[in-house]
Specification:
Blueprint (H helix, E strand, L loop, with lengths): L8 H9 L3 H23 L2 H17 L12 H28 L15 H18 L3 H12 L4 H8 L3 H21 L5
Helix pairs in contact: 1-2, 2-3, 2-4, 3-4, 6-8, 7-8
């Protein structure tokens, strides 16, 4: 009986760089849920997180020659791409909503808004509150929080992905935790 080992990220990415779509699909299957959860934490919206996830993997495919594996893992690089994609999507969504507000509704039409499941609504409400607190952090601290606290990337891997020292990552996370704790104590409605 032969035990077949799962291919490593390095093996899959080497094939991906050569244009192997099947190997890239395996990486997608391996990390799509993690990327999606990261995108939700950044956007506070399940539907926008879907768009960000799709866009992030498209960017990863297009920029496959630029990838930086961290200790043989492609995940930190994917999470950095996801963070950058979320920023762009959030800006686009904000512009789109502003445009829609300028368009007058036709007389006699009412907004037909489908009711989401209660869990999704609660998740998004809580995530918006948390995201609002995190957005008040300096950018460097937000990036460290997103990678280390939200997505479970180690300090060492985050340091490589962000191109800074591990000590700097630890410091940023520590400062962010202190600021968030202070914000939540000062603003109990944000909990």
């Amino acid at each position: 009986m032969t035990i077949q080992m799962e291919p490593t990220d390095q093996e899959l990415w080497s094939a991906t760089v050569a244009g192997d779509e099947v190997r890239f699909a395996q990486l997608f299957d391996r990390y799509a849920r993690t990327v999606y959860n990261h995108a939700f934490r950044l956007t506070g919206s399940w539907s926008l997180a879907e768009d960000v996830t799709q866009s992030a993997f498209l960017v990863a495919w297009r920029r496959r020659d630029d990838a930086r594996l961290v200790d043989g893992s492609i995940l930190p690089w994917l999470l950095v791409i996801t963070t950058n994609t979320a920023r762009g999507e959030t800006r686009s969504a904000r512009r789109w909503r502003a445009l829609l507000r300028r368009i007058p509704l036709e007389r006699g039409t009412e907004r037909d808004v489908a009711e989401d499941a209660a869990g999704r609504v609660d998740d998004e409400r809580r995530m918006r509150l948390i995201l609002a607190a995190v957005r008040r952090l300096p950018r460097a601290e937000r990036e460290a929080v997103a990678l280390c606290l939200w997505s479970g990337v180690s300090y060492a891997d985050a340091a490589v992905a962000l191109d800074i020292s591990e000590g700097s990552v630890r410091s940023r996370v520590s400062r962010a935790r202190a600021r968030l704790a202070s914000q939540l104590l000062d603003n109990p409605e944000d909990r």
